[in-house]
Structures are given as structure tokens and as C-alpha cells.
Amino acid sequence: MATRTEEITPAREAWQAPGPEQQWSDSFYFGGGDGEGLAFYSRIGRRPNEGVTEGALGIWLPGQGFLLSFARAGLDDTIACGPVAFECGAPLVLWELELSGSGRLFERAEHVATARDRYREVDVAGRLRFTAWLGPLEFRSGLAEGVASAHYEQPGSVAGVIAVDGRRRAIVGRGLRDHSWGVRDWQRVPYWRWFGLVVDPDTFLLVNNVGLQGGGETAGGFMMRDGLLSPIVACETTSELDPALGSQRSFSARARDEAGRETVIEGRAIEVAPLRQRRQDRLTIVNEGLTEYSWEGKRGIGISEYLFQSGGPDGAERD
Question: Quick one: fold of 22-309?
Fold first, then answer.
């Protein structure tokens, strides 16, 4: 079972020694929200063999808009870049997140692609605390070549305050963190679809489908239901996509775990931020969606992520 292993020790809660590949990458991610529409994602990733660290932050703010902030810098021992800084308070248990700087405030997340010049530059600040509910989940299944070979995740509680353009908001909710490292070639994966609903320590579902270069796909993730944790071994997804952006509108995913249990999770995207990953002449679209979920009688708002490779510079064409 892909649960806590001897490999995931406190030493993993820091930047890892890089491999020789140019696109070897190390990435920390935190996301979460209040389950009612206030939600965020944050990522700090670095490519040590290219001397680059990147920091990204997105926040859905009900009644205010969508904030996007991104920065690029050199290498440092701290896990920080631009608008975000992560500090480990207790390995594999507690992390502190600090938000500071500025960002672009759009009326809606879709305007990141459809109305790129319609935003206001605003200040962002905040402090959040992430507390893990259980030991790390070693996320090996479902990951294709080129998407970081080492990867663990943890669901948990998120609490703190976020301030955007002088308006302070409290978050008391749930979220997810992950740490992954290895070769990360965004353009090497045909597509992936990730979704999940985190309810409480005994109730969460994390599912993904990853397309394979030779055709077909593989599945991964975890289901915690009735106190039993088991990895996902199969998943079939039906999606309705936006015809212009290629982003998710709605989906239904039927998954099966290693224990033989089947389940269905459904989602409807409320707002989607179509983000871009460029490398030379290749373009990958990563759609981060604020999503209303329904799973076995439970409802909540979280994040879904659809990635695909673009055939055109505006991201509208698809391979």
C-alpha cells in the first residue's frame, strides 16, 4: 500500500540533491480554502541545474476577483520566491506559509487568458498554517515519465489570514500539500486530470489520470473512506470542456481503489485560470479550476487541474 514509507523521512522536507538532468526539478505545493469559495494554490519550484527558482500564487476571492502572482529568481537554501515563502515548523506535520508582495487582480480567473490586460496591480499579504492529518502518502502510481519520479502528499487543516488590496479574510478550512522532485518536463506528458475533495481526516478522495506518450493512460491517488486508506488503481473520467479554452467545465470520475471499492466524484468548474508553461517553442496549458464537488452525499468547493499540450501560441488549439 502506498502510505508512509521509510524513504519519506524528515530529511525529505527540504530541497533535495539534484540529479544531472537539465530539467531536474524540486517542487513544494500548498493549496486549500474554506470550502465555500475562498481558495488558494501556491508553489515554489526550482531547477538547480538551470539556476532558476519560481514562485507562484493564485487566490480566488469571492466578491473581489482572482489574484495571480508569479516571480522568478536564482537559487537559495530557503524555500521562498517572490510572493510565497514556506517554512517547516515540524517535519511531516506542520508548515508555515507567508504571502507578501504584489499581484494582478482580475475580475474572473478566465481573464488571465481572455482579458490579459484587464487587471489591477494590488498588494498581497498573509500568514497561513498547514497541519497534516496523517503521515505522507507516497504518490507513485499515476505518474508518467517526466512528471517527477518522487512525490508525496498530505491532506490537512489550513488556518490563517489573507489580505488582498487591503481587504483581510480569514481562512479556516482544509487543504493539501505535496513535495515532488525529479525530472519535470511539462511538455512530455500528453495530458493529466487531477481532482479531489478533502472533507476530514477520515474522508477524502484524491484522483488523477495521466496520459501516456504511447497512448492510453494511468491512474493514481488515494481514497480515505470510513477510516480505511487505500491507493487508487483505476479511474475513468468523462469531461465537458470549454470549446475555446479547452478547460474543464464539468466532469465525472469513476475510480477504484486497491481494496476493490468503487466510487464516483463529480465536479463543476466555477472559475478556471488557464495558466501557461512555456519552454522554447512548446506551450503547455495548466487549467487551475475553482470547482464545486459532489462525492457520496458530500459537497464542497476545492480545486481541479487539467493539463494539456497546446498546438498554438494562444492555447486555443489542442493536439
Answer: AttH-like fold (2.40.370)
How close are the terminal C-alpha atoms of the chain, in Å?
35
Place of cell 507567508: 98
C-alpha span between 165 and 101 (Å, rounded): 11
Distance CA 160, CA 168 (A): 10
Contact 141, 2 (CB under 8 A): yes
Residue type, 114: T
pLDDT tens per residue across span 56-91: 999 999 999 999 999 999 999 999 999 999 999 999
| 33: Cβ contacts below 8 Å, ≥ 6 apart | 39, 40, 60, 158, 171, 173, 174, 175, 301, 302, 303
Identify the DSSP state of 114: H
The grid cell for 101 is: 508582495
Count the Cβ atoms, other than its own, within 10 Å of residue 109. 26
**Residue 163, φ and ψ in degrees, nearest 5:** -125, 125
Confidence of residue 311 (pLDDT cuts 50, 70, 90): low
Domain segments of the chain as ranges: 22-309
Q: Residue 123 has what pLDDT?
A: 98
